[in-house]
Amino acid sequence: MPEGHSVHRIARQFDRNFVGQQVEASSPQGRFVEGATLISGRTATEVKAVGKQMFLEFDEELWLRVHLGMYGAWDFAGEIVVDPTIASANGRMGQTNQRGTVLPDEPVLDAAGENSMTSIGAPRRARVHVRMSEQTRGLRDEGAQWPPPVVGQVRLRLLTDLTCADLRGPTACRLQTPDEMLATIAGLGPDPLAGDPAEGEERFTAVVRRKPTPIGLLLMDQSVVSGIGNVYRAELLFRARQNPHTPGRDVPEQIVRGLWRDWVRLLSIGVETGQMMTMDDLDPDEYRKAMASRDDRHWVYHRAGLPCRVCGTAIVVEEAAARKLYWCPRCQA
């Protein structure tokens, strides 16, 4: 499931490529025909991401709410203007940096041959029609079909003169009034990038400190905090050396606040790099490996049975609310 950093990256691409543009909408799959008809011909006016959900406004106060869920994805084609706050032309990170890490000058490619800093949303193979441009729109590949052919089950296609976005497999894709949109957001926990982080810290701390639910489950509860998924949950708890089974109300306040502040930091890094980078103090070679491979960028996630990077104890994996929970039984005892 895409975690919060991916949704914020996608929202920023919509802001640069769709907001202010008249949009043609269709539902090739046929499951959103009525909604697409209402959107088509309107101008996109605003986009916001809160946690794992994106809200795209069209004129006359019509909002499109999209929750990608476990299997949803946006595929972009055409001429894409890369958000310069995410990456610079040479693929380097901007102001957000890993503590103690010296960044390489050249782009780092992952196993799929992709530079995640200039990818859209969650790292994925670039579509053949996508042309990346940081400041200006380039020309589409000469001879490429436009609009691009529909591939697979596309719930919603949004199309401007230059850019195409195809939505596949979302958990939610529906239109909302402004009041409905605000009610949806009101039911979500704080997101560091969708409000005042200091206010979010107070809200998060107050909720966690009164809950008997294990902290490992609270971090995945989108009504408690927005955007954290399985990867960030495991890594945040390890970085705090916090046992995931401790009831929220029993976690010391300074640890709860530390979890929030670490989430603020890791989310910003994730948005900027396109990767859920959770390890600090990497030298340039280690950083390259971490950017290229998930196996080298996490402390405990997806490392069941492997030795803890700190103490050498085998990392444990167990089921928690139907999701895999990775943790070190010694460091997080």
TrEMBL record:
Membrane recorded as keyword: no
SUPFAM superfamilies membership: Glucocorticoid receptor-like (DNA-binding domain), N-terminal domain of MutM-like DNA repair proteins, S13-like H2TH domain
Domain Formamidopyrimidine-DNA glycosylase catalytic: 2-100
Keywords: DNA damage, DNA repair, DNA-binding, Glycosidase, Hydrolase, Lyase, Metal-binding, Multifunctional enzyme, Zinc, Zinc-finger
UniProt enzyme class: lyase
Ranges of residues in domain FPG-type: 299-333
Classification via SMART domains: Fapy_DNA_glyco, H2TH
Cofactor field: Zn(2+)
Parts of the chain that traverse the membrane: none
EC code(s) of this entry: 4.2.99.18
Family matches, as PANTHER family: ENDONUCLEASE 8
Family: Belongs to the FPG family.
Protein name (database record): DNA-(apurinic or apyrimidinic site) lyase
Phylogenetic classification of the source organism: Bacteria, Bacillati, Actinomycetota, Actinomycetes, Micrococcales
